[in-house]
Amino acid sequence: MDTYRSIARRQTPTHTGIEVTGSAGSWGFIVSPLLASIYCPRLLSTNGCWGNTLQMGSVERLPIAQITDSNQLTFECAKTQGLAWDLGVFYLKAPDSLNLAGARQFGREILDPQSPFRDISQYGELEGFISLENNQQTKLALRRHRWDEHYPAEIANFGRELDLVGMAIIQEVFRQSGIPEPLWGEASGGYATGEGTAFLNFVHYDTQQPDFGLRPHTDYGFVTILDATAPGLQIKLDGEFVDVPVITDHLVINFGEALNFITQHSEQSVSAIVHRVTSQIASDPMRHGIVYFANPDLEGELKQFNTEGAEMGSSSVTDLFARLEKDLTT
Ligand SMILES: [Fe+2]
Fold it and tell me: 203: left (phi > 0), else alpha (psi -120 to 50), else beta?
């Protein structure tokens, strides 16, 4: 664990270059879905930590969190929460109320070339039915204010359930940060108090194209919630890409650059981890996924506060994203 923590700490202050080199390596905590299904319920039901090294026998893995009935994000203990913050990634047990099966079914239906949802025209560069350049990923992407217009009602509701998950995660980040609560909304451009922007995207891959599923990058926003049906996601640790296995009924959460920015002068900052999706060429069945992005409004402002409530810095969202874009190496 300490190795992972020190790796993450070394990543934290930089966030300048998003390296695209590096080969996939093996990772000590790779855990099969079967092992996870055996071990995770026991771990989730305990109030204590499972030791200093995140060991499950000889298996190690990412921290796992859940959301309580009062919509609060909780980990097994402070140690695993701290590791999640340092790494910038963790598993979240999918809330029982979340209609994951229905949303997955909707995502699979979009694979049909005749699906009317493939005809949704683009709104700018980020919304609509989009094929990414230089990646295999194809997606139907819509911001929150268009969900009711284009998504079936149950999918729009699914998005609003993820809004609650995103809020729970961000509010826990603020709680741990020590930033005074009255400033949470101002710091996050409104997201922590129910505003901001959210995307609900359904993604799949062009398995004929010889490219990455998704090239290495960090996410720009606050929080990304991922439901993937097959392996392929990798995160970068100590210069090596390692697999993030799929665990049944668990989502993968990662933090983005905007959340790193607004917590940088607080008691506990969060990292934005570099990740990618491996090539899905000729994969069968096709990997598909649901991705929710909790983001600031593009027109908004982000503020950095310390635990005394003093403003330590600020940036318009467009300026921050432009700096990140400039630092992106391809
Ligand atoms: Fe991403």
Answer: beta
Phi and psi at residue 319, to the nearest 5°: -65, -45
C-alpha–C-alpha distance, residues 163 and 284, integer Å: 32
For residues 319 and 136, is the Cβ–Cβ distance under 8 A? no
CATH number at residue 258: 2.60.120.330
Distance (angstroms) between ligand 1 centre and the Cα of 150 equals 23
Give tens-digit pLDDT for 38-95.
233 333 333 345 543 443 332 367 899 999 999 999 998 888 899 999 999 999 999 9
CA of 290 to the centre of ligand 1 (A): 12
CA distance 234 to 273: 10
- Rounded to an integer, what distance in angstroms lies between the CA atom of residue 220 and that of residue 269? 15
pTM attached to this predicted model: 0.82
Query: How many angstroms separate the alpha carbon of residue 168 from the centre of ligand 1?
Result: 20
Q: Where on the phi/psi map is residue 97: left (φ > 0), alpha (ψ -120 to 50), or beta?
A: alpha
* Residues 84, 253: Cα–Cα separation, whole Å: 9
Give the integer Cα–Cα distance in Å for 88 and 25. Answer: 19
SS (H, E, C) 97-132: CCCHHHHHHHHHHCCCCCCHHHHCCCECCCEEEEEC
Ligand 1 mean position, distance from CA 293 (Å): 9
Domains held by the chain: number:
2
Q: Are residue 33 and residue 175 in the same domain, yes or no?
A: no
Tokens standing for residue 327? 């630092």
